[in-house]
Amino acid sequence: MTPVAPARDDLERLIDSIAARLPGSSQTRNQVSSAVAGLNLNAARTTALIHHLEQNPDALTSGRSDGPQAWLTILRPLFLDFPDDVVRARCVRCGRRQSLRRVMDDQRGCDNCHRLILQKPCVRCGQLGTPVWRENGGTVCSHCANRDHSRDEPCGGCGKTTRVAARTSNGPLCQTCAPRPLHTCASCHRPNQKAHKITDAGPICANCYHRQKVATCSGCTVVSCYVQRRPDTGTLLCTSCWNPPPIACARCGDEKTIKHARSGTPICGSCRAKYRPRRECVECRRIRPVHSRLRMGEVCGSCYSRLRDYPAPCNRCGETRSLIGRDPDGAPICGPCAGEERTWICDQCGRFSALYADGRCPQCVARERVAERLSDGTGRIHPQLQPLADVLDIDGNPRSVTIWLHGSRWSRLLGDLARGHERITHQILDDLPQTRHLIYLRQVLVHTGALDQRDEDIEGTVPWVEDLLRRHTSSIGMIVRPYATWSVLRRARRRPKVTENRAARKYARSRIALAVSFLSRLESDGRTLRGATQTDVDRWLAGGGISRHRLRDFVLWAHARGLCDTLDVPWAERTEPKAFLDSQARWDLLRRCVHDDDVVLEQRVAGALALLYGLTPTQVVQLTAEDVERRDDHTFLRLGHSPIVLPDSIASTITELADQATTYRHAIVGTKPPPTPWLFPGAAPGHHARASWISEQLNRDLGLSLRRARNTALCTLAGDLPASVLADLLGIHITTATRWTKLVKRDWAEYAGERSTSIIPVD
Known about the structure:
The chain is of the alpha+beta class. The chain folds into 6 domains: 8-117, no CATH class; 182-212; 278-333, no CATH class; 362-454; 461-560, no CATH class; 583-744, hpI Integrase, Chain A (Orthogonal Bundle). It is 42% helix and 11% strand. It has 30 helices and 33 strands. Strand 15 (215-216) and strand 16 form a beta hairpin. Helix 22 packs antiparallel against helix 23. It is elongated, with a radius of gyration of 39 Å. It starts with 7 loop residues before the first helix and ends in a 6-residue tail after the last helix.
């Protein structure tokens, strides 16, 4: 039977009745007319709406859910147009504004409340639950039904044995493979989209849903859909900034920080990963926890990341894409060729990619979030930080850049500096706590040109001194601060600039720290520097190592300024080297450095250079690829003024390391041209590795003491070469070379004396 169309007078009467309850405007009646026209009312529904408005003058503001269903439908567009004058209908039980499709108590309620009304005792667990099927004269609740796998069947799409969500001509399908109704998204208006949520405006896709749910974290100011209002503080925090108090894990019992709880049961991250289903990965064929279910089957986490981050040419279409499927012959193919229905085109740049967030590729997401982090508060990148944004490897490694934004402390510190200062200077960084994150940030800013170059080994000592003196009394600071500023650091700045001045920094900080330690000892004994005696100095020197004799510099400075009486701190006596390697141990270690492929290449080269030429860790880390020269059939290494010919076994190892150095790329920060190909690149861009790191690695993995290796190598070389040649080849001072030569080749007069005493007379 065809519905009877409403009379025109009834429609006009309905529109006038609604418009009269809204604020008067020239557009009000037009907006109401559009809302009524969208309902496609018939005569009966129009009459019912008119009677409902006549009986309920406050129908637009009461929030009640009674009345015709058409009235609840028309409230949605009216609420969007007049949010201050229209109140949406609420659930009769919980009062929430949701889709009200259930009739309860002559009004309407939401699905959740209706489900609670229908709950019955389960015949299996005895608890109240939503009935799913009948059994033994009762009902089985949804929780017990989910645990019952007796009705599971193999899915016709992915082959997984699980609950049947739909039955089609292809057989039973699981929840993932079951077809879902497609809609036109009410936000982006793209057709054939799966509805992630049905809103007042209509169905919206997953991308638009997450885009609308974003919020700003009150901790790091990151704008993300993962920002939520935390129950412990009531503030908006992202997952990285939220640190709830530790609670006991329901499985292991350990007190841990648990941010996610399943079904109200707190389970720590270790137990969650431990109890994930473990199956055979279709890529690596190892039994590992399942990360994702692709068209080719179930894959582990490492294989999923590799497939996503390293696309390859598809064997069917030839395009370079993420190969997540297999053709009938077993060859890898891309998602569209495998029948994957998800969207692969970035909404922002139109690039084909495995989309990362909000329908965009990883490159677009990383570029937008970098701009937000480096913003100066006006929506544009801080002008001083533009060089840093230009060298970030967004196109080559976007996921690492995104991880850096959310997980790095120096990234957050950089964002605070961009928003809080019109110009970032070294002085601003010096006033902050000198943590390793701040030191790394300074190195990056200097490398990219955002900050001026300075001798950080010396100038970085200034905030170190202030941090040291902050932990002591003011009387100590009044003495040490001028000593550090006008004596120690002034002389350090006047020294010739070399490639690295870390030895000068170490020596300067050692003298300042010794002065503070001596004054603290006097203060604890109730004495002052002016009243210090030689007994106080001798007692303090006897309580430590030989390095305490460096206090002589401070005592001479203080006496020259009338701060103390004449005190004597003797020079530290020079001792001959005593730690050596025996010949067999030295050659065994050298063979391992040359032939053992299980040892890291950097350690093999560093160990070989220390065992053969006695290089210090500082000399090793300062080597570059340009120091390795190939001429004819020989390989040369330049340590001093003249290059050294390397043995063939060592030459192949160091040549391989030099080739790696020329192609080395930092994780996220690119290298400004011209790059410096350090043989031992460090964590900071443009810097080489720390010398202490080389010593620690060789001592831990090879059991090699660099002091013993250096002493043995220099003694061997000094026994074969004159001091001048030794200094020229190794780049050491002639005085040092002469001292090593005298150690192994004493003068002939001393030799003759010892020779004469050892002659046995012959009868």
